[in-house]
Structure to design on (134 residues):
């Protein structure tokens, strides 16, 4: 029995405080796993699953790649968009011709919006303690 090494394409994607490492492999029977769990179990909402699969559907590659992703930090929406960013970057590693269409859609641009840090003397970034006259 020979142990054939599969060729994979790997990239890192980020959004807010989420970081994802996506590894895509060409396969005839695609399997999507996130943190070693099936994607349908990890992202139980359809819109989050669609967010993850969007780069494949936009490039007409549905059913041609398997995905293995490790993601940490942030919430589920942020994590799904970090995985989408990582998949788009991995597709560019796979085929450089995908760069222009993915960039035009906006999947290669890292979303720079971050939560503002808390300031001393305030409850949150801008929320002041409640003011009392008497």
């Amino acid at each position: 029995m020979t142990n054939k090494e599969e060729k994979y394409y790997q990239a890192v994607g980020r959004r807010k405080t989420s970081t994802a490492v996506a590894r895509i492999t060409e396969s005839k029977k695609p399997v999507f796993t996130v943190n070693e769990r099936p994607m349908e179990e990890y992202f139980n909402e359809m819109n989050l699953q669609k967010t993850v699969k969007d780069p494949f559907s936009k490039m007409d590659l549905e059913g041609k790649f398997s995905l293995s992703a490790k993601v940490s930090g942030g919430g589920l929406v942020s994590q799904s968009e970090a995985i989408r960013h990582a998949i788009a970057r991995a597709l560019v590693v796979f085929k450089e011709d995908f760069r222009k269409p993915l960039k035009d859609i906006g999947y290669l641009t890292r979303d720079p919006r971050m939560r503002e840090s808390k300031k001393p003397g305030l409850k949150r970034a801008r929320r002041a303690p409640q003011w009392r006259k008497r």
Remarks:
- Strands lie at 8-15, 18-26, 32-34, 37-38, 65-72.
